[in-house]
Amino acid sequence: LWWEWDGYYDLDDQYLLGPALLVKPVLEASVEQVQVELPAGRWYRWPTDGDSSRWEEMEPGSQIIKGVTLS
Q: What is the pLDDT of residues 12-64, one digit of tens each?
């Protein structure tokens, strides 16, 4: 993210996949939540159950995402 937005130089565990998807890989089965840093802009949480009517808008900044599962 550091090449797109100032202040994100030390992030090495999340990345942009194209211009619109921020990815934070979950690599351990015991993880139930993760913290992400969202740059300025409009962000939405991808519904984990595939129901696209349940997109949740998220505020820029540091966010905790709960309900993370490794499958």
A: 888 888 877 888 888 888 888 888 888 888 888 877 676 767 788 888 888 88
* Beta strand pairing call for 21-23 and 15-17: antiparallel
Judge whether 19 and 53 are in contact, CB under 8 Å: no
Tokens found for residue 7: 């202040």
Contact 43, 60 (CB under 8 A): yes
Query: Using alpha carbons only, how large is the chain's radius of gyration in Å?
Result: 13
Cβ atoms of 39 and 4 within 8 Å: the answer is: yes
Contacts of 16 (CB under 8 A, 6+ apart): 1, 4, 22, 23
